[in-house]
Amino acid sequence: ENKNIAIAIDGPAAAGKSTVAKIVARKLSYIYIDTGAMYRALTLKATNNNVELNDESSLAELLRETSIQLKQSDDGQRVLLDGEDVTLDIRSQNVTNNVSYVAKHPAIRKEMVARQQSLASKRGVVMDGRDIGTHVLPDAEVKIFLIASVEERAKRRYEENIQKGFPSDLEELKKEIKQRDQIDSKRDVAPLLKAEDAIEIDTTSLSIDEVAQKILTEVSKKI
Ligand code: CDP
Ligand code: CDP
């Protein structure tokens, strides 16, 4: 008998969350929800509108009048910000460098978590982020916490950037990843943290398929 469950995947930057989440979702015919994309979309709009990123109430007001849609399509997930496709724009270095300052505000998190819970209310969902197992879906049947060394994570982003045709500096990437992990782990509300009942997988020396297989094994114990 098949059962539709919720799978929460958390972990630091570039641990491989979205890559394996998409594979797991496809294998199970579940929907995939990239919560980081939602924080990134708001960050893009805030910087485009010159909203001060320290100004929590202005950001919260901006979010209230902002529509963020995650659309499943054949070439992966598209992100629509007020109806406009911003799938590529939200991966810019500028958004990456600023997103953690937006995501640390309690009022922003409260609204984002409510939206994410509503997106996941119909089960059969794989959701990735930083606080999915701890706050967004505390009753998820499978919780995974992915980690990898910062050297390996920077190397993965570096190779990804070469493939995209935008070579970057490995040391810069390492610094940016460390900085973002630090802000995400140290914030007061819902910091990056392994849920007590999450299974930790160190992916430093694992392939994408090996990680996906480990998660699918955990899933098969539950469905
Ligand atoms: O894919 P990558 O690791 O670069 O980051 P992401 O998943 O797109 O998330 C971008 C940022 O959004 C994170 O660094 C966090 O600051 C924030 N975020 C969060 O606070 N909570 C989530 N559930 C997801 C993302
Ligand atoms: O979502 P998150 O920021 O955690 O990571 P990602 O965007 O999925 O990026 C991880 C990068 O590392 C991708 O380029 C993957 O191809 C690569 N990778 C991986 O995800 N898992 C491995 N075990 C090995 C490599």
Features of the shown structure:
3-stranded antiparallel beta sheet; binds cytidine-5'-diphosphate; 9 helices; Cytidylate_kin; globular; 223 residues; ATP-binding; dCMP kinase activity; EC 2.7.4.25; alpha/beta; 5-stranded parallel beta sheet
Strand order of the largest sheet: 2-6-1-7-8
Q: What spatial form do the alpha-carbon principal axes imply?
A: globular
- Unreliable sequence segments: none
Averaging pLDDT over every residue, what do you get?
96
Largest sheet: 5 strands, parallel
Order of helices and strands: EHEHHEEEHHEHEHHEH
Radius of gyration: 17 Å
Q: Tell me the structural class.
A: alpha/beta
Percent helix among the residues? 40-55%
The tally of strands reads: 8
Distance between the termini: 7 Å
Total DSSP helices = 9
